[in-house]
């Protein structure tokens, strides 16, 4: 899947998901279905995930400036943090409304609920079909978000059918509680990951000890210290380190540097600053001081 095709697909997916998000809001209001409104919260999350994926592609095209030497990659993380907080507020509102409906059940237009949820399922399946097979990590993430929302749409359809044939509207607030819990879990993960990156902690999927061992195993490297490893955004890891070597030839040091950067690619480390030293020193950030 080419970059242009991915961008076009994401733009179409954002447009369809946004339109249906609005449709589902009105459908939930007019049908009286809280689970449909909860599924709209899912759609809101999907819209954000798709926008982040498209934004990551567009940001990667922008060159750094004198005042923004790392570009605009951190915008993604700030947006994710805001999105996570909004999702928590949405889920809290859904749980409050579900509690009120347990106390005082509302009539629900199951037919409208069914057709709106069915339309949502069709849109989700279309987006899944278009995004399936992409190797881009951001697109894969958006794909998983839409996939989980597809499951929620199926659940809402089931609830609409159940209400139509049994008249038991209690299933609607019960389902909305489960949807709110799923949204809350997703929101907590988004907030946690965003704060982790903003505080410049070590990437959660990278073992710093393994990284240092890999560097130490390269011919010509005698030691590694003063190591700093963090994430710039969700798909770019950054490393700074001092490399001790006994190699006096600058040309061979350059070869060692290229070899180190090549090894670091498997850790998704895309920006590396390496300072080579011919005399070993030990600072506070040496290997023995790195703790999990």
Report the top-level CATH class of the largest domain. Mainly Alpha
Q: Mean of residue pLDDT? A: 84
Number of helices: 8
List low-confidence stretches: 282-292
Radius of gyration, Cα only, in angstroms? 25 Å
Gap between N and C termini: 38 Å
Number of domains: 2
What is the CATH homology-level superfamily of the largest domain?
Cation efflux protein transmembrane domain
CATH architecture descriptor of the largest domain: Up-down Bundle
What descriptive keywords fit this protein?
mainly alpha, single chain, elongated, three-stranded mixed sheet, Alpha-Beta Plaits, Alpha-lytic protease prodomain-like, 292 residues
Characterization of this structure:
This protein is mainly α and 292 residues long. The chain has helices at 3-31, 34-59, 74-103, 110-131, 137-166, 171-198, 208-216, 250-264; strands at residues 223-233, 236-244, 269-277. It has eight helices and three strands. A three-stranded mixed sheet has the order 1-2-3.
